[in-house]
Amino acid sequence: MVERPDSSLPETLGALRSSAWVSRPVKEEIRLNAVARIRAGQTLFPGILGYEDTVLPQLEHAVLAGHDVIFLGERGQAKTRMIRSLTDLLDEWMPIVAGSEINDDPFHPVSAQARDLIAEEGDDTRITWVHRSDRFGEKLATPDTSIADLIGEVDPIKVAEGRYLSDELTLHYGLVPRTNRGVFAINELPDLAERIQVGLLNVLEERDVQIRGYKIRLPLDVLLVASANPEDYTNRGRMITPLKDRFGAQIRTHYPAEVQTEIDIARQEASLPEPAESGLSIDVPDFMEELIATITHLARSSPQINQRSGVSVRLTVANLETVVAAATRRALRLGETDVVPRVSDLDALISSTAGKIEIETLEEGRDDQVIDHILRGAILTVFKEKFSAESVRQVVDAFEEDLTMSAGDDLPVSAYTAMMAKTPALAAPVAGLVGDNESDAVKASAIELLLEGLHLSKRLNKDSVGGRASYRARA
């Protein structure tokens, strides 16, 4: 909740004139605040990961140049987050003429209401202060969006009250005028009908609006930011050329190039249970986080998945939350307090993955098979990164001597502890992966990765019944 402004702030136009406050255009205000942050060595957009050397420098250039911006990128590439973070570069508080619907600058009012009020009351005109969080407007572009939504319309109620149609006071302002002296965002801009896009031309270039042919000029002060999917923007030509030409900066976003960046984003965004609230101890091993992020990266390169719609970072976040939920359910059923995801919990990811990817196949019912193939590919990839052939040789040799092992979501941690005690060959590769000081629950997770990786690399056989898997030698 935003705190009330300092009571020492001016409350009348006369007091404001006597203060140190200076009226600036919104782009100049943002630029000066950005300059101050850069000079102080502060980041302009905290919480935006993976763009430090690519997108963010371009966005900083646009901010310093005072440009309107359009972001091009697939879903889940932090476009909306970057747009909303621009408000942090606004002054914390901004004065407006009290009662103004469009945030009139007390020194340069643009609405008839504010001009008449100042002409009547002069320096006694009351001033109110608006927090920067209220200086942001946003509209998801849909085919049914109208000019009235964005710009405004004649209010029939005000006409019925006795005003003339030519009176500016009959207008009901749309979203753009109401965001005057702030940041206005249009998400998925190409989805706007072309005739509506035309209505934005003056906003971007001449900085005014025209409503129903009235000779009303509102010189708005707005930073306009938009987002679009490249498929809609370039291939289908759904954005009119004059509007495209009026954006000063076009910035292409992308998915995280590194698995570790994907992990960092998932850690930041995932909503996991608080230990104090659940009475459980949640620990997601590094190799399980890497496995979950690798699933997403493999999906982005899979020919069986529609890459034009993208594979969002939200897939990684949802899968992390789901695998923790599966491990939590298992721990509760087995009466354990340590929640540590295992490979056997990955079956739960089919539900959280299916809704976030578009599989390109003509055969019905193959979705689960495609997802399962990606899951197994991720397990094998992480296994090969974490274990060398030499480190697992003694484990394979132990299986050659008629050893069998079971794994599954119905086995308690104690069962895996017993496996390690019975099979000394497990100790070295498990310790190499997680160390000697990790909990037994983490070691149980490491054992499952080891066993499943040996099976997928064709060094062990596996028999599965329900949620239980039995591993044995290949011979």
Extract low-pLDDT stretches: 233-237
The CATH class label of the largest domain is: Alpha Beta
CATH topology of the largest domain: Rossmann fold
How many helices? 22
> How many domains make up the coordinates?
2
**Rg over C-alpha atoms, rounded to the nearest angstrom:** 30 Å
Q: How are the secondary structure elements laid out?
A:
Layout: H1 13-18, H2 26-39, H3 55-65, E1 69-72, H4 79-85, E2 93-97, H5 112-121, E3 127-131, E4 136-140, H6 147-150, E5 152-154, H7 156-160, E6 171-173, H8 175-178, E7 182-187, H9 194-198, H10 201-204, E8 222-228, H11 230-235, H12 241-246, E9 249-252, H13 259-269, H14 275-278, E10 281-282, H15 286-300, H16 313-334, E11 338-339, H17 349-354, H18 367-386, H19 393-400, E12 405-408, H20 413-422, H21 427-434, H22 440-456, E13 461-465, E14 468-472
Helix pairs in contact: 2-3, 13-15, 13-16, 15-16, 15-18, 18-22, 20-22, 21-22
Describe this entry's structure for a reader.
The chain has 22 helices and 14 strands. The chain is an alpha/beta fold and 475 residues long. It folds into 2 domains: 240 residues, Rossmann fold, CATH 3.40.50.300; 214 residues, no CATH class. A 5-stranded parallel sheet has the order 4-7-8-1-9. Strand 13 and strand 14 form a beta hairpin. The protein is elongated and about 95 Å long. The termini are far apart. About 1% of the residues have low confidence.
Key phrases:
single chain; 475 residues; alpha/beta; Rossmann fold; five-stranded parallel beta sheet; three-stranded antiparallel beta sheet; 22 helices; 43% helix; elongated
